Amino acid sequence: MILPGLYNSGPGHWQTLWEAELPDVKRVEQQDWDHPVKDAWVATLSAAVDAVDDDVVLVAHSMGCALTAWWLASGMPGLLHKSKVRAAFLVAPPDVGRADFPAPSFSPMPLIPFPFPVAVVASSDDPWCDLSVAQDWAKAWGAEMHIIGAAGHINGESDLGSWKQGQDWLNALVAKTEKTKQ
Q1: Total structural domains in the chain?
Q2: Angle, alpha carbons 174-15-41 (nearest 5°)
Q3: Model pTM?
Q4: Which CATH number do you get for residue 92?
Q5: Tens-digit pLDDT string for the chain (182 aa)
Q6: Cα angle vertex 145, ends 142, 150, to 5°?
Q7: Keyword tRNA-binding on this protein (predicted)?
Q8: What order do you get walking across the sheet with 56-61 strand by strand?
C-alpha cells in the first residue's frame, strides 16, 4: 500500500512510478490531500487495511510516515487486523512538531515500537526534518535506518525516477519478513 504525504504524490514522484510499474501496488486515497486531519487519515488507512485479504506492506512518504505511526498508536478497530501488515517502509518522515508544519493534528510524532519490521529512509538535507530527528524516531520505532545522502525531501523534486536503491531496500525489508514467517 502506497501512503503518500501532504498534497499526494505527483507524476514524477517515486511512489507514483512504483504504483505504475510494480505489481499489486495500491494507493490509499485520502479524502483531503491539502488539509489533512489525523483522525480522518487514520480511519481511511484502517479501512484500507481491513478491506484487503492479503498481507500488506506499507510504503509511506512524508506525512504517510506520521500516518503510519498514528495508525499504530491509535488503537483503531482496524488494528485487529494489524497482523496483515508485514512491514513498513517509511521515507522522509516530517518533523510534525515544527511550528510551521501544515498539519498540526499529527503532532507530536508517536514514538512506539512497531510490531513488525520497519525501515526508515532519511536525507541528510531534508528541509522538513533534521536527520538527527529522523534517526531518533527510527530508534524509537525499532527501525533499520538508511541515509540516502543529500536528496532533499526524497520526493519528485529529488529526481529519483523509479528509485532503484529504494526498491532494493524495500525488497530487503520484505525478504526479512519472509524469513520470520518460515
Answers
A1: 1
A2: 90
A3: 0.94
A4: 3.40.50.1820
A5: 999 999 999 999 999 999 999 989 999 999 999 999 999 999 999 999 989 988 999 999 999 999 999 999 987 545 555 678 999 999 999 999 999 999 999 999 999 999 999 999 999 999 999 999 999 999 999 999 999 999 999 999 998 999 999 999 999 999 988 765 54
A6: 150
A7: no
A8: 2-3, 56-61, 85-91, 118-123, 144-149
